[in-house]
From TrEMBL:
It comes from Sander lucioperca (Pike-perch). Residues 86-129 bind DNA. The gene is LOC116049592. Pathway: Sphingolipid metabolism; Lipid metabolism; sphingolipid metabolism. This is Ceramide synthase 2. The chain crosses the membrane at residues 39-56, 140-160, 180-198, 210-229, 263-291, 303-328. GO terms for molecular function: DNA binding; sphingosine N-acyltransferase activity. SUPFAM superfamilies: Homeodomain-like. Residues 131-332 form the TLC domain. Residues 84-128 form the Homeobox domain.
Amino acid sequence: MLSGLSEWFWQERLWFPEGLGWADLEDRDGRVYAKAHDLWVALPIALVFLIVRQIFERTVATPLASLLGVKETVRLKVPHNSTLESYYCNITKSPTQTSIASLCKQTGYSERQVQRWFRRRRNQDRPSLLKKFREASWRFTFYLLAFIAGLAALIDKPWLYDLKEMWQGFPVLTLLPSQYWYYMIELGFYSSLLFSVASDVKRKDFKEQIVHHVATILLISFSWCVNYIRAGTLIMLVHDSSDYFLESAKMFNYAGWRNACNYIFIVFAAIFIITRLVIFPFWIIYCTWVYPVTIYEPFFGYYFFNGLLMTLQCLHIFWAVLIIRIAIRFLTNNVTLVKRQTKMQKKYTFEI
């Protein structure tokens, strides 16, 4: 049954244009092509990332946090109460007024004591600034190095400057060593993020982050299997180009450097909007959606690949709305502050 399912899943008509197939991607004459089994390499790489992250956070991020003035938050531990703890863990972290009255009868606590217990218990679970800083510094380091490495790998490639070149000779495109490692490292990193999601800081866009990680892993894996590697490297480069600015803004925010955080965030917002709302949809998606059908008939893999890209684009729009709101709030607050300072300065000058 499994062999039949595998045979159906990998049938050529799903993943290749008519007249092409897996035989076209067999190594020959010294030319090497991407293979599906290569993707297993990403699993040990993900494990290495998880180990390196622990070492990095303890030996690099923690001293850096101390240098920037980020301190571990000391929170009061609530007195142990099995009834309240069971309710907190199994039912809800924020009980209703009716539930509080019931818990008062079960524990002998007053209403205020129960409310205080739950408030302190919630605070006890909140991640500290130091944990957030270490997580942001790890991601900042990876995204920055990944962007530099990706740019170095693509700087001399013709498809970086003429996107139509990504389909020149498709699917018989020779795999380069730089493409191999760029793919495996990116896939390993996003796999490690998926593995560590339970222990990472839970943010408001937690569900969207999960969708993003899964879509990215599927996109990288699929583009590797059917030799959409040139398109894949461009997509990864576009995504890495702004993420390190966001993580650095978070680092300065946790350190209390508000001005540095705000200005870096504005730079991030500008780059994010240009790369994710302009370059990605109007250049890259255009070249994967419109141009290929001038070369061959659409097939399932064509729709699947572009469907994943559209999923990412929907997430980009969602995040762009949040980013623009934050940027507008920052600019509005700055204008108000400048007006207030100008008014005070005029008043002081008049009094003199």
